[in-house]
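=== RUN LOG ===
request id: a7f3
mode: sequence -> structure
chains: 1
length: 311
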Amino acid sequence: MNPKSGRRVFQKNLETILGRLLLEGTAEQISVSPTKARGDARETAAQLQPGEFDLVIGCGGDGTINEIIHGLMRGGCGTPLAILAAGTSNDFAYSMKLPQDPEEFCRMVQDNQQRLVDVGLANGRYFINVASFGMFTEIAHTTDQEIKGVLGKLAYYLNGLISAPEQLSTLIPVRISSPEHTMEAELRICLIANSMSVGSLRKLMHKADVSDGKFDVLLIKKKALIPKDIDLTSYVLNGDFLNDPAIQYFQTDQISIEPLRPEQGEKIELDLDGEFCGHLPLEVKVLHKALPLLIPKEQAKPEPILHSLPL
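=== RESULT ===
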C-alpha cells in the first residue's frame, strides 16, 4: 500500500477490508507492506515466491499499481493481483470496474473470479495501462502530489489548461513502425493504451479490450485542428477531437517509435502509467494474458458453451 496515494481516505477502507477478510475466514494471514519511497512496491512484489501467498492486494494510485505489476512480472511468482484503487486517476481500475467499497471488494476476493489480462513491455519495463509522450504527458509528472491529493482529477485538468498554449505548439518528428503501419509524422501526442481510460478520459480508447492481445494507439499529428474559442477540456472529454482527419487510431501488438532528428531537439519524455520512464526511442510489445487479475463476478465474461453433435 502507498499511504500517500490520493486523498488518503482509503486507509480506513483498507483497515475495514483487511479486518473483514480475517474475521470472515477468507484470509488466514495478511502481511501489510507500506511503501516509504519510490521503488518499494516494485521490490516487495519482485521478491515474492511462487505459492508464498494466495493473493496480492495492490493499494495505491496508477504509479503504485505500475510498480507492483512490474515487480510481479519481473519476479515471476504468478500470484493473482487484486487492485484497490486509491489514486487520482485510477484509469485501469475504472475501466475494469474494480470496487473501492469495502463490502464489494471483500466479495470480489471471496468470489476469487480471475481474468488473465495483457501487460505491456516498454523499453524493458512493464506497464498495465498506457505508454505515452507529447502533449500533456508531463502533467502527471509536474502536478504537485499534495495538490493532487486535495483537488483530485481537477488538478490534472487545471495544470493541463495552464500549460495548453505551450503544449499545443510542441511538435515531435518521429518514425513509427508496427505490423500495421510504417510512417513518419510530426506528432502532438502519442498514446499506446491497454484499457479505454487514459488520463481520466474514461472512454478515450473506445475499442480497447485488456485481454485481446493488442494495444490501442492514438496519434495526434501536426495538422490536427483545434477550433478557436472552444472549451478545450470539453473538446477532449467528449471525444469530439477524434473526428479530425489528422488523428489516427489503430490496434497493434508491437510498435517502435524513434525521433527523426534526435541531434536537433530536446529529449522527449516517456510516461508509463503516469510515471516518468526515460526518453524516446520507444519499443512496446504486448504480453498476451500475462497477469491473473481479480475482477467482480458480474464482470466475468461467460465461457462459450461447446455443443457436441449427437452420435
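=== NOTES ===
Residues 153-168 form the longest helix (16 residues).
DSSP finds nine helices and 13 strands in the chain.
=== END ===
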